[in-house]
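Running this now, will post back.
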Amino acid sequence: MLKDLTRLLRHSGIYLLGNVLNRLGAFVLLPLYTSQLPVADYGALEILYSTVAVLSVIFAAGLSHTTLRFYFEEKSDEGKAAVVTTSLAMVILLGSLGAAAVFAVRQPLTELLFDSQRFVTALTICLIIMVLEMATEVGFAYMRAREKSALYVALSFARLLLQVGLSIYLVKYQNQGIDGVLKANLASVALGCAVVVGYALWNCGWKFNRQLARPMLHYSLPMAGGAVVAAIAMNVDRFLIKEFLSLDAVGIYALAMKFALLLSFMVSEPFSRAYGPFRFSILNNDNAAEIQSLVVRGLVVAASTVALGVALFMPEVLYVLAGKAYQSAYLYTPFLLASVVVSAAAYCFETGILVKKKTKYLLYISIACLFAKIILNLTLIPMFALYGAAIAYFCTCVLHAFLVNFTSQKLMPVAYPYGALWRVGILAALAYTASYALDFRNWSVSVPLKLLLIVAFLVATYALDEKLRTIIRRVVPVFRGEGAK
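Update: finished.
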């Protein structure tokens, strides 16, 4: 068991480094964006990203995850290669057709979204990015299956340099605004696509298999339907904020979400990239359920620690990096960070549904959560403005995690440590609440005391969780090369 856990942690750590490099550009460039882009333009950029996020999930049909599921079912190298290239061919075809259809109505669509055709070029660039990213995800699924995490880190560093350099040139010196931001992003995505897809084709050749295509689509489409609904649920609040409040409010919410997604980039995404293939690789282990329980326990502790750190220090960071118009974003981030922690746990809870191939349940759950989020936003945004949107987001994530876990437990029971998970959340909330007494403009006092709050949270978590103490004592020597005791 320790060997499996250390393998998961090792690759998660490498993916973490790659994710940090991949996303660092957004924060390195934050002073540039907040000084060169009005808050309303920052909000418009978020509306574009949200629109394309929904479209990409529709057209991708869940094929990147399907690639992993079918890859590990094949016994021969030839069969594995056919899975990768068949999935790649389907996603490129679907993505290109979908992008072409949206491009044909780009002018009325931008009029609908912004009451203006000012962002037609920006939408066009986003559609190109969408197709490239869809192909990259399938190629990257192959890299994850082969555990080529170091290659991901190298590619992420190259993309970071390209995006930062081009963004500074196009936004600051060429004054291209949103179009400049997107062109720099396009160049970065194109580089990633060329390397990742090229790597897949170099190793797999081009072996499209019609017999594989049908069962892959049969598996992926119900899950893709759920993912489409989930993507709409994830982004619908931006559109409702625009309707009830303004594009400026969308911009503030987008910045708050950007900091909340730091948690996703630093913990959830690296973990899921490693855990996706890992959970299928241990299915035949006698202690698979025990490993999954331990993984969730460790994940929630790690995610809560990072969430607490981001929430505590976001006011200081915004005070230095962002313009005055963006300063209030830190007020809404704690609710969004808590939502990301809950969503990370929900990803683990999906295992029973995926193993039994009952992906239709993910669709049903996503539909229920979409309706819940819309109702919550319609109720809370008029009453509490952006606080209402943030609270609605958190409540929806809790509902989603509950329904996923309830369903998975019926299919494959796992004894998750619910009491310990709630305790971690309560301790993090108490530590954050204590920070309200501190003035973030007085760094000499706020920074040391906030660091002490994080230490206090970790000490309390460690002291109150005997199982966690046992696991740490057993895993740490393995990383030191001392062997399991």
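The mean pLDDT is 83. More later if anyone needs it.
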